[in-house]
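Sample intake sheet
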Amino acid sequence: MTGTFTATILTLYPEMFPGPLGVSLAGRALREGGWACEPVQIRDFATDRHRSVDDTPAGGGAGMVLRADVLAAAVDSVADDRPILAMTPRGRPLSQARVRELAAGPGVVVLCGRFEGFDERIFEGRRIEEVSIGDYILSGGEMGALVLLDACIRLLPGVMGAASSGVDESFETGLLEYPQYTRPYEWEGRTIPEVLRSGDHARIAAWRQHQSETDTRLRRPDLWERHEGARVCSPSGARRTKDTTS
């Protein structure tokens, strides 16, 4: 392994990569060697003449299941010190904290599911982290892998312009990001909040914090509950008072 963040994607559709990651900031970083994309065809590890990668579910049922023996051979061919993640709706929800951990490492191996999913024994026989990007079903793990990789790549050194761009955003502090505005000052009778034009950085920071807390409480009560719990359990043992500047 080199020092470059390397993404190896085990998939039945390697032509889907880099896909949208080949354009914009991620694409520029890829061309400049800031990260590497290595799609691998799972079917190459099949052992029969039909190159079979799946079979019918044990116990009956609809669809097909990816075989553990074929998956294990594919995983073993690329395994190194990088974490191996499988994209599956049965996995733990992907968080910004986990994304930051992955982006700080040497890269990832991503296993993309298809059909009815994976033979469960692949997770018993190999150290693979199951990851979900949301409570919905996609046709396969490739779209989830693109989401995961985009989240990681944008945090790599030099990919985004401003060093603070990846910090002052939704989820980085456990809250949704505050509302953003830009010119023109007035649009269809709606104006930019006056505090943002005041030049008073303390007032602006207080307003943004208040907006983040309010929006999180109203739009994502699950995040708000976790945020409040984290504040109550802080080392100081004291709950921080809310800023109410408007």
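Comment: DSSP finds seven helices and nine strands in the chain. The first helix runs from residue 24 to 31.
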